[in-house]
Amino acid sequence: MKLYRRYIFRSTINVCLGALFLTTLMLISVDLFANLDTYLSHELPLSTIVHLTLLGAPQAVIFALGPSLLFSATFFLSQLHANNEYICLIGSGIRPLKIVFPIIAVGLLASILQFAFAEYVKLPLAKERLVLEEELFGLRTTQDNRNITVHDPEGRYVLYARHYRAQDNRLREVLLLLFDGQGNLTQRLDARQGQYDEERGQWSFREVQSQEIGKVVSARTLETYDDPRINLDPSYFRSSGGDIDQMDIQTARNYLNWMKRLDPNRYTPLAADFAKRILDALNPLVLIFIAATIRYSLKKNILLFAIITSLIVAVVYYVVQMVTMIAARQGVLSPIWAMVIPSVVVLLLAALQRTLSKQG
């Protein structure tokens, strides 16, 4: 690797690590103080408080990585121009793209590392923290759900439940409609509750009122009802909030494919969340690319300029992303466009900044 490339790599990464440490520490502190009252009211020992805080640290690292890289690239390029090092590099026959390329490479590497870190470190620790918080504070799990309707992709049944409790995988006030191969209704069952049997991999219903539909309708009361066709995994009944975030990638993909056929109304927001989860790993690359497109002309107050520029770009990027993701969850935008539009908006602002600075 040539000397100037090593210099760019080292300078960008060193500043990024410093900014990442400080930003992560700030986010961990915010999380700690936001929950401190809850911790003290439950008289948790210091070791448990530290454990809970550290379990949330990987999430803070992921939040901080993109803005830290943005600041690092902005500060380095500002310093490069202010010290006339940029002119020296150009005068040595190095093209501008070759100066920017090592910075983009750092962003690409950071995106790859963020994706792996999120899947193999953040995800299991976030699950552990959620379980621990529910045990310590007695919180109702966010995966409980109400008024759920699912149908078998093969058209064999439709199931409605008034309430699903994730703690023990139990359905209450269940209505089950069974159909034959021609799509004709053959039986209606009203059950007081349903329980998932993990050993058999199917649902068992209790206190059932059954109506069999043929030439005549016959009714009877059943103490229990078991049907091997009713074998949906409990995850399909859970609230969509957090489902995708708590599954590994392959499970999440299978879950989406099933949900597209089982419940199209829930599929749209879940697909948006899945796309965001995958494409969020590109945030460091996108932000560092945006930093490379900004025009740098100041000779003084470099640190202040880097901080202000980073804050403006990050705020605009994440606010626009929040708005487009809301639209994607409502089905107004496709999930891909919801993640692309924020990048386009900030790049247009960077192009406008370059144009205005040239005119000035």
Please give the structural blueprint.
Blueprint: H1 3-41, H2 46-55, H3 57-82, H4 85-91, H5 96-137, E1 145-151, E2 157-165, E3 170-179, E4 185-197, E5 202-213, E6 217-226, H6 249-262, H7 264-279, H8 283-293, H9 302-329, H10 335-359
Helix pairs in contact: 1-3, 1-5, 3-5, 3-8, 3-9, 5-8, 6-7, 7-10, 8-10, 9-10
What does this protein structure show overall?
The two termini are 38 Å apart. It is elongated and about 95 Å long. With 360 residues, it is an alpha+beta fold. Helices cover 61% and strands 17% of the residues. The chain folds into two domains: 3-138 and 274-359, no CATH class; 145-238, Lipopolysaccharide (LPS) transport protein A like domain (lipopolysaccharide transport protein A fold), CATH 2.60.450.10. The chain contains ten helices and six strands. The mean pLDDT is 85. The longest helix has 42 residues, at 96-137. It has a six-stranded antiparallel sheet with strand order 1-2-3-4-5-6, with no helix packed on it.
Percentage of residues assigned to helices: 55-70%
SSE pattern = HHHHHEEEEEEHHHHH
Task: Extract low-pLDDT stretches.
Answer: none
Structural class: alpha+beta
Portion in strands: 15-25%
Q: Mind telling me the C-alpha Rg? A: 27 Å
The DSSP helix count reads 10
User: Order of strands across the biggest sheet?
Assistant: 1-2-3-4-5-6
Overall body shape: elongated
N-to-C span: 38 Å
The overall strand count is 6
Total domain modules: 2
Mean pLDDT: 85
The main β sheet shows up as: 6 strands, antiparallel
